[in-house]
Design brief:
This protein has 119 residues and is of the alpha+beta class. The chain has five helices and three strands. Strands 1-3-2 form a three-stranded antiparallel β-sheet. Helix 3 runs antiparallel to helix 4.
């Protein structure tokens, strides 16, 4: 699912200036986490300058599903958060970043410098 840096068509500096740091903070509720993660993915897709069919398809599905009654009361949000984190993590790894909770604050999700090379 990950695109190479060339396919993303933006530089490491642009990625860092635009996306490094917090995406969503202060909540562990799926209804608070999913919308900003989706917006980050949508922005990356728009910035990519090239088709990202798998990421785009997932974005479209979850954007639609999350508007349906009962979505946040189902098991789907947890699975979708995992998938979003995998997609965003794959993109971040191309630039030396991981996507996940901040080491010092479990409710601070975003792109963080991969100091340990775990991405």
């Amino acid at each position: 699912m990950t695109k190479s840096i060339q396919e993303l068509s933006f530089t490491r500096d642009k990625f860092i200036s635009r996306y490094a740091g917090t995406c969503v903070h202060g909540s562990l509720r799926s209804e608070d986490i999913i919308p900003p993660m989706l917006e980050t993915l949508r922005s990356i897709i728009a910035d990519s300058g090239k088709p990202m069919p798998l990421a785009s398809a997932f974005w479209g599905r979850i954007a639609n599903d999350s508007q349906q009654p009962g979505y946040y009361e189902s098991d789907a949000p947890m699975e979708d958060i995992e998938t979003l984190m995998d997609i965003l993590g794959g993109i971040g790894s191309e630039f030396g970043y991981y996507f996940g909770a901040h080491e010092g604050d479990g409710s601070d999700f975003g792109f963080w410098k991969d100091e340990l090379g775990i991405s």
